[in-house]
Automatic annotation (TrEMBL):
<dbReference type="InterPro" id="IPR020846">
    <property type="entry name" value="MFS_dom"/>
</dbReference>
<feature type="region of interest" description="Disordered">
    <location>
        <begin position="464"/>
        <end position="483"/>
    </location>
</feature>
<feature type="transmembrane region" description="Helical">
    <location>
        <begin position="141"/>
        <end position="159"/>
    </location>
</feature>
<feature type="domain" description="Major facilitator superfamily (MFS) profile">
    <location>
        <begin position="1"/>
        <end position="438"/>
    </location>
</feature>
<keyword id="KW-0472">Membrane</keyword>
<feature type="transmembrane region" description="Helical">
    <location>
        <begin position="45"/>
        <end position="65"/>
    </location>
</feature>
<dbReference type="GO" id="GO:0016020">
    <property type="term" value="C:membrane"/>
</dbReference>
<feature type="transmembrane region" description="Helical">
    <location>
        <begin position="416"/>
        <end position="434"/>
    </location>
</feature>
<keyword id="KW-0812">Transmembrane</keyword>
<feature type="compositionally biased region" description="Polar residues">
    <location>
        <begin position="468"/>
        <end position="483"/>
    </location>
</feature>
<keyword id="KW-1133">Transmembrane helix</keyword>
<feature type="transmembrane region" description="Helical">
    <location>
        <begin position="179"/>
        <end position="196"/>
    </location>
</feature>
<feature type="transmembrane region" description="Helical">
    <location>
        <begin position="16"/>
        <end position="33"/>
    </location>
</feature>
<protein>
    <recommendedName>
        <fullName>Major facilitator superfamily (MFS) profile domain-containing protein</fullName>
    </recommendedName>
</protein>
<dbReference type="Pfam" id="PF07690">
    <property type="entry name" value="MFS_1"/>
</dbReference>
<feature type="transmembrane region" description="Helical">
    <location>
        <begin position="246"/>
        <end position="268"/>
    </location>
</feature>
<feature type="transmembrane region" description="Helical">
    <location>
        <begin position="208"/>
        <end position="226"/>
    </location>
</feature>
Amino acid sequence: MNQLQEDFNAPDTMKPWFMASFGLAIGTVILISGRLGDVYGIKNILLGGYVWTIIWSLLSGISYYDRQDGAAMYICCRAFQGAGMAFVLPNILGAAGRVFTPQTLRKKLVFGFIGLSAPLGGWLGVFMSGVIAVRTDRWDWNYYAFAIFAFVGCAITYISFPEIHVIRQDDGSRQHVDWMGGFLGITSLTLFNFSWNQAPVVGWQSAYIIVLLIIGFVMFFGFVYWELKVAKNPLIPPAILENPKLVATLSTIFLGWGAFGINLYHTYTMYQDFRHYSPFAAGAGLSPAPPMGLLAAISCSLLIGPRTVELILVGSMLAFTGASIILCTTTVHESYFRNTFGAWILGPFGMDWSFPAGSILLSEELPPHLQGMAGSLVSIMMNYGISIMLGVAGTIEVELLKQRPEDTYRAWRGAEYYAVGISGLATVIALVSGRKAIWAYITGKEVPMPEVYDEEKHELVRAPTKVSLASSPTPKSISSLES
């Protein structure tokens, strides 16, 4: 980001956009991309997403040659690149939800290792970008490399991905996509996110920021009304919106991953802007993430179940909170191993415990024809949380800098205190939501049965107390795919 800022002659306040634009696109387009996979075929949407990603990855690299308006072009290309990945992630989750039997160790391992891709892939990305920056001084090769890896993913998908049939309606016709709901939802989320991330650049006194923010709020409430009262085939099943436990789970993931986004961005600003690490050393600073991510993925797969899922979710939020506390108490002249090293021992547990817990919970409480939507909801909370909270943290930094322009470290720490606050709030929500199941587990009493989706009633109902999810019959739509 420092090289981008220098090459494009961009202001400091624009730097967060270099990272936030990608998350903005993922967090909004995912609202409809999972549903498109359910309707038009998961494999088809996956391949289309990869092709789109390849095109815009190449264009992101080509923006290197535009030094006059390159920053704007780069940010736009990154957003479209994120839109491509928005069609990939939820449909991979949807495929895993469709193919693997609920509550089996195999399904838990699959979701755990998909979650591992966050710390492992993220570390490889930032480490190799540091290598490219040091060895070539050409940041555009990061995006040419991105295009190459996307092409490999596309080829693997085309050759080896299973043909997952599209589940049709009772009369045999294709399911429908709620295009109006998609328009209202994506537009409202985009405007709201844009306002928060652009405000630190131009200031909250700019009239168009306030106008766009208000329009975003109005369209969001219009989206909720449309989904609950009007839509015949809503993007988000009303049973999800009306279920306090699932809403609490998604809110927890939103806040926890928002804190993670702040921590990731501020770790690198600490490394490079305050401690003046080289790009290579800054990439190496996240070296604890892959092994800790692997440990977290395996441990989560072995521990998670109907009796422990709420406990796993609370543990993940405690990991996010602990990492935030470590970072907000670090000082510029402390050694790497004394403080920031510990933050990235804990951080991967937040990622790799919250993601499988949320994904499995939603996957097993929604019917097979909505598995793509289940993946979308978790992915929306993760990526939109990262993007929007970066904008809020940026506003905090700008306001603190107005008070003491020379004290940039105070502004940095203020944003980290905010990360502590939202991750702590996520922990409280997870504790309150799962208090009965957690207390039952601690005392050894019978755990209340979770709610499951009744396909005949089209709503979430309480499962019979004598039937455990681990021994419940396998749905025909899943058993027919196991072979």
